[in-house]
UniProtKB/TrEMBL annotation:
<dbReference type="GO" id="GO:0004577">
    <property type="term" value="F:N-acetylglucosaminyldiphosphodolichol N-acetylglucosaminyltransferase activity"/>
</dbReference>
<keyword id="KW-0808">Transferase</keyword>
<comment type="subunit">
    <text>Forms with ALG13 the active heterodimeric UDP-N-acetylglucosamine transferase complex.</text>
</comment>
<protein>
    <recommendedName>
        <fullName>UDP-N-acetylglucosamine transferase subunit ALG14</fullName>
    </recommendedName>
</protein>
<keyword id="KW-0472">Membrane</keyword>
<keyword id="KW-1133">Transmembrane helix</keyword>
<dbReference type="GO" id="GO:0043541">
    <property type="term" value="C:UDP-N-acetylglucosamine transferase complex"/>
</dbReference>
<keyword id="KW-0256">Endoplasmic reticulum</keyword>
<comment type="similarity">
    <text>Belongs to the ALG14 family.</text>
</comment>
<dbReference type="Pfam" id="PF08660">
    <property type="entry name" value="Alg14"/>
</dbReference>
<keyword id="KW-0812">Transmembrane</keyword>
<dbReference type="GO" id="GO:0006488">
    <property type="term" value="P:dolichol-linked oligosaccharide biosynthetic process"/>
</dbReference>
<dbReference type="InterPro" id="IPR013969">
    <property type="entry name" value="Oligosacch_biosynth_Alg14"/>
</dbReference>
Length: 171
């Protein structure tokens, strides 16, 4: 959906130095997987030096389904974190770039744990969705305190959250 569109727009300008790319999506999100495959094929077609796209798609359980009760969200988020940490430990990313779906919270916490445990410092960049004009999303409220760079796309959010970085509309 919208988060996938936004992250793929951000990735259009990402250097090939960030390769292979690892996409982590909810295990029930088939549409995003199709869009990622299409994006990566298109990216490879534009860059003749790329023989084959260098990316992987990983699936984790959603932290919260639409209409899910807030109380049960605690348990599904913990379960998602339980499965995210081994994945993050195996990949050991240099950078986690995320933009808002609840799926990114367990991944970011797992990446943060890699640094806390002395395994690897991972840079976490969170880009708040362009549809968030005056208030942060729930993921944004959580990751505002955990990310290395917190990017907003509206001046009103920059005023409310001075630690954030305002670059204008980037998607």
């Amino acid at each position: 959906g919208g988060h996938t569109t936004e992250i793929l727009r951000l990735l259009e300008n990402l250097s090939n130095a960030y390769s292979p790319r690892h996409y982590i999506i909810a295990d029930t999100d088939e549409m995003s997987a199709h869009r990622i495959h299409s994006f990566e094929r298109s990216r490879a077609d534009r860059d003749p030096s790329t023989m084959a796209p260098k990316y992987c798609i990983h699936l984790i359980p959603r932290s919260r389904e639409v209409q899910q009760s807030w109380l049960s969200t605690v348990f599904t988020t913990l379960y998602s974190m339980w499965l995210s940490f081994p994945l993050t430990h195996r990949i050991k990313p240099d950078l986690v770039l995320c933009n808002g779906p609840g799926t990114c919270v367990p991944i970011c916490i797992s990446a943060l744990l890699l640094g806390i445990l002395g395994i690897k410092k991972v840079i976490i960049v969170y880009v708040e969705s362009i549809c968030r004009v005056e208030h942060l999303s729930l993921s944004g409220k959580i990751l505002f305190h955990l990310s290395d760079y917190f990017i907003v796309q509206w001046p009103a959010l920059k005023e409310k959250y001075p630690k954030s970085v305002y670059l204008g509309r980037i998607v």
